[in-house]
Amino acid sequence: LVSVLSSAIIVYRLPWTWKCSKVLMKFIHAGLNTIAMILAIVSMVAVFEYHNASNIPNMYSLHSWIGLTAVIFYSLQLFFGFAVFLLPFAPASLRAAVMPIHVYSGLTIFATVIATALMGITEKLIFSLRSNPAYSESPPEATFVNCLGLLLVIFGIFILWMASRPYWKRPPEENAKALLPTGGSPEGTEAESAMTDSGNADKSDLRISSEAARKQNLKLDEAGQRSTM
Fold this sequence. Notes:
Layout: H1 2-10, H2 22-53, H3 62-86, H4 92-128, H5 140-164, H6 186-228
């Protein structure tokens, strides 16, 4: 879940994917998340079966509580992501409103998964290294798992940093067409601009003609006054 979910998070932020179409990247993002969800479900089933076979109580530790919460929210994230962003039924306004929530919840779930993994490996060490040797004696197993935990923290920080930096974002030029009005096109925009310019020109010509006519009337009035005098 940690490795595949992190790949799904940064798939939009890899420069060599910016040349690919947005639709293709959406399917890759959704596919990676689906694989991560399947692996999470398989691992949870394996855990419950192992606990039941070994007469170990289920869902009593903080690790299990947070882990199950992360999986539940991840399934909701996946469902709403499919419904809003992948299927072509949601309006653009809804997608724009949901996108910040989708990004924030995805990063939060990823951070929660990292925390769950850290609690899980620590819990396993405490249960396994009770004596001969004890965890407090820092045997090789404890050193190895502690180093693994540090690497998980560094990896999580790197993914969150990469996902939050503006210069790692997909260039907005890829979505330039989506910013046009419904049914609009660059040609239509140019035509509207030309019509506007033409209208302004007509108004300018009309003002010039009116001014010329006014001056001509003044000259005629002056000529009439002179002839009368």
